[in-house]
């Protein structure tokens, strides 16, 4: 969820729009899970936020920081490495494979 949120929020977005985007991508997440995550990522310096009061309903917009983008890139790299390792384990010619 962290990587997905940081990736989507490279463009500014508010919580509900992030929920919709993640849901459309197949990530099922509840608002009561997402909003604390956004606050935690902001506290860690991975996101910034600002209020948009131009519309009738004020919204807090989040955006990934440079630091957050570098962390997301590192996490995506690690995810890819782990995915390859698991896939390799499932290949018949790989030592330790169960096939």
From TrEMBL:
Domain Transcription regulator PadR N-terminal spans what residues?
8-70
| Gene3D superfamilies assigned to the protein according to its UniProt record, in alphabetical order | Winged helix-like DNA-binding domain superfamily/Winged helix DNA-binding domain
Q: Which domain of life is it from?
A: Bacteria
Mind telling me what this protein is named? PadR family transcriptional regulator
Which organism is the protein's source?
Virgisporangium ochraceum
Q: What is the lineage of its organism?
A: Bacteria, Bacillati, Actinomycetota, Actinomycetes, Micromonosporales
């Amino acid at each position: 969820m962290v990587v997905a949120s940081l990736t989507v929020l490279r463009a500014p977005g508010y919580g509900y729009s992030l929920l919709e985007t993640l849901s459309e991508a197949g990530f099922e997440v509840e608002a009561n899970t997402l909003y604390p995550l956004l606050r935690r990522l902001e506290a860690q310096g991975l996101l910034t936020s600002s209020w948009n009061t131009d519309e009738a309903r004020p919204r807090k917009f989040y955006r990934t920081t440079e630091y957050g983008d570098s962390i997301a890139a590192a996490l995506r790299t690690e995810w890819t490495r782990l995915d390859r390792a698991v896939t390799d384990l499932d290949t018949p010619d790989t030592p330790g494979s169960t096939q």
